[in-house]
Write a structure and sequence with these properties.
Blueprint: H1 2-21, E1 26-34, H2 41-52, E2 62-68, E3 71-74, E4 80-82, H3 90-98, E5 117-121, E6 125-132
Parallel strand pairs: 1-2
Antiparallel strand pairs: 1-6, 3-4, 3-5
Helix pairs in contact: 1-2
Length: about 130
């Protein structure tokens, strides 16, 4: 499942950073989640809670997740707009969920109808910050 793979990536990144810095305990992980990922948050949070149980350094870690709204900018006319999941079919939404870069096949600039746009923000999953002891 996609959410489990992302949770594993977050967990392994936190563990790698803790080894590099010789940290004894990670007290908090702040994760940013791009809206374009369209993650099932309950599954992602459950996966994180299950994975962190396996490591002493992560057992008491508070996990905070902040969603980042997806914003696009048209490379043709410069118009900026927000992601509107409700305008996609379930198949389109599912495709973007697994491969966010495919968004260009399904979305066009609402002003000039160009498929040539960039994702300004709201894509990906990353550790925003880590608090340690």
């Amino acid at each position: 499942m996609h959410e489990w793979a992302l949770a594993e990536a977050v967990t392994s990144t936190a563990l790698e950073l803790s080894k590099e810095k010789n940290v004894k305990e990670i007290t908090e992980l702040r994760i940013k989640m791009g809206e374009l990922q369209q993650i099932e948050m309950e599954i992602f949070e459950f996966a994180l809670s299950e994975l962190t149980k396996n490591y002493d350094i992560l057992k008491k870690t508070k996990i905070k997740i902040k969603m980042e709204k997806a914003i696009f900018r048209c490379n043709v006319c410069g118009y900026e707009w927000s992601f509107a999941k409700d305008k996609l079919t379930s198949e389109e939404s599912e495709s973007i969920h697994f491969v966010p870069e495919i968004v260009h096949a399904y979305i066009r600039c609402p002003k000039c109808n160009s498929p040539d746009f960039e994702v300004i923000k709201g894509r990906g999953v990353w550790l925003d910050s880590i608090e340690v002891r």
